[in-house]
Design goal:
By secondary structure, the protein is mainly beta. The chain is built from no helices and 11 strands. Strands 2, 4, 5, 6, 9, 10 and 11 form a 7-stranded mixed beta sheet that branches. Strands 1-3-8-7 form a 4-stranded antiparallel beta sheet, with no helix packed on it.
């Protein structure tokens, strides 16, 4: 089970940190991913981190602004979002995958319920 938190309303240029808490004892065996979804659209990949946390990957539009990290001792993955823009407004989901390097929604086994991020202009 994955449970996201940390979404909210922020002004352009502001910051938010999303958290995703996982249950279970095999958290470190999963690559963790963040997706976002605009109204009426499919979920889009945003960022990923390997099970051990040593490798990360981002889409170009968030590079240098977002940072994904994880704390395997506490079964939590984070998405630090800085310099937020109105186009970052979406529902953000965390997801768990057994495979690294495949970033489509169907490559993930477990999903959180989503958390709304709204960036006002």
């Amino acid at each position: 089970q994955l449970v996201e938190s940390g979404g909210g309303l922020v002004q352009t240029g502001g910051s938010l940190r999303l958290s995703c808490a996982a249950s279970g004892r095999t958290f470190s065996s999963y690559a963790m991913n963040w997706f976002r979804q605009y109204p009426g659209k499919e979920r889009l990949f945003v960022a990923a981190i390997t099970g051990g946390g040593g490798t990360t990957y981002y889409i170009d539009s968030v590079k240098g602004r977002f940072t994904i990290s994880r704390d395997n001792a506490n079964n939590t993955v984070y998405l630090q979002m800085n310099s937020l823009k109105p186009e970052d407004t979406a529902v953000y989901y965390c997801a768990a995958s057994r495979r690294w390097g495949r970033f489509g929604p169907s490559d993930n086994i477990y999903w959180g319920q989503g958390t709304q991020v709204t960036v006002s202009s």
